[in-house]
Input
Amino acid sequence: MAKRILVVDDDEMVLMALDELLKPEGYEVQTVSAGSEALQKLDQGGYDLLMLDVIMPEMDGYELCKRIREKEKYKETPVIFLTAKSRDEDRARGLEAGGNLYLSKPISPDKLLGIVSDALGEKKH
Output
């Protein structure tokens, strides 16, 4: 079965780019543009990996990650922050909120695919 990835970012271009990058690799990708939408999606289905932006209206990625970690089903699910915020204190906040990895945009597609594959415990040839 395809691994399911939920991508949360308020930038439509980022959502489209990640969708186009991940789907051909065989992942089932769902994209949402707000934290509240993400929480609803999480309740509807199981995801193997979550990718979150930090800077979003209404609820930032840190808050979203904390709420995700409160859900029993998602306590161990890998969470990758993919954000323009690159300062050390931002990274520390992301990891403190429950994120597994904190990546700064821009990132090369190949590098991102490798990181996603590793986070999902897959071995690529």
Notes: The mean pLDDT is 94.
